[in-house]
Design a protein that fits this description.
Length: 171
């Protein structure tokens, strides 16, 4: 009765991509919570792994287009959000690497769900009065206090939802 719900087919490269995405994002969440930064060495490590997986995909006759397009489009879409101070540079770089690892279809879901999760979290933090506050120095020499949140957590939740949906759908 339940065998069709539990059984799904996944190749080893897709599983490896998923595990790399989870590992990089969990490390990013940990670093983000500790220091409000996603370190470049973490993103660079993820980029190197994604390039190796792209080379393997190409060498085994797979198509690179969906992965490269996902990485490039993710970067192009998120840079304006970064420039408007919507997310941090580390979040843009992390999502770009995730795009190179996940492909266009999954990346669209991950970006949409990340912003949805962040929006819902922001509403809860504002309404409850909870959440982090940081003192930030402004260019004119004054300072201001801002509500902050770790967008990397929303990215992780979005990944879990996205890959849960894909697995449930048998992809």
């Amino acid at each position: 009765m339940f065998h069709n719900l539990i059984y799904f087919s996944i190749d080893s490269t897709t599983l490896l991509r998923f595990l790399v995405i989870v590992a990089i994002t969990l490390l990013a969440v940990w670093k983000d919570i500790k220091s409000y930064k996603i370190p470049n060495y973490l993103v660079l490590g993820g980029l190197m792994v994604s390039i190796l997986l792209l080379i393997y995909t190409f060498a085994t006759g797979g198509s690179l287009i969906t992965y490269v397009v996902a990485g490039v489009l993710t970067f192009m879409v998120l840079v304006p959000v970064y420039l408007m101070h919507g997310i941090g540079a580390g979040d843009v770089k992390l999502l770009t690497v995730i795009g190179l690892l996940s492909g266009v279809d999954a990346m669209i879901r991950i970006i949409a769900l990340s912003f949805l999760c962040a929006g819902l979290t922001g509403i809860v933090l504002i309404v409850s009065g909870a959440g982090g506050r940081r003192q930030i120095m402004l260019p004119n020499g004054t300072s201001a206090r801002f509500h902050t949140m770790h967008f990397s957590i929303s990215i992780f939740v979005a990944e879990m939802l996205t890959y849960g949906i894909l697995v449930a759908g048998g992809c």
